[in-house]
Fold this protein.
Amino acid sequence: MVEKLYEGKAKILYPTEDEEILLTYFKDDATAFNAQKRGQIRGKGEINCAISAALFEWLESLGIPTHYIDRPERDRMRVKAVKILPIEVVVRNIAAGSLCKQTGLPEGKILPYPLVEFYLKNDALGDPLLTRDRLAILELATPQQLEQIEAMALKINQHLREFFERCGITLVDFKLEFGLDSGGQLLLADEISPDTCRLWDKAETDPKARVMDKDRFRRDLGEVESAYQRVQQRVLEQIAQLRNQ
Ligand code: ADP
Ligand code: MG
């Protein structure tokens, strides 16, 4: 096996013969609260790889440029190598998580419009929320890139919201990462999975029972594996339906 390029909390990156292509291996490892809480979710690697691959492929078909190439194995994805911008882009439709903690908004409050937020991708600093001026001063992206990222994030939100709605799932919020390919083109990168999205089952009203994402692990709600499996099943069913249309 070739030596890994980088090991993160959820994935390992391997080089390939083509320097413009990376192999991403999705791990079962789960972390929360800036890696203070660690564990494993059985089958998560394969599930997140399958969900991400399906969603990237589908977004690509709708004109969103992504890093996705293919999925040679169940837990492995080939992607275009990009220079990841050190910004975590969060889109929120409903108040949850740190937004509630920091503002006092009640969990579950529907936001008047989708909120796009930028956080610094830096575990040592605790991924702090960035203001426009902090973004400009840190020169993490050009103003044009930021505008493009925000527009892309909102478009992705529209597509994903509608998609998950058809799955009987409410898309509460999610995190995106973007990168620049060798030609300087901005691509959607990383993953879209129950690790990076808050997903609530529309059939459940109970605030614990409805959770289908990593919050089950964060908040020790149990039945983490089965929640991830149910998301995978609904996503893949929906993709198959859209293909047959
Ligand atoms: P983290 O611990 O930072 O969350 P992950 O384990 O989720 O990391 O992912 C590993 C790393 O891969 C992350 O730093 C992520 O930004 C990076 N990455 C994702 N897609 C690409 C890509 N196409 N090219 C290069 N790096 C990527
Ligand atoms: Mg990650």
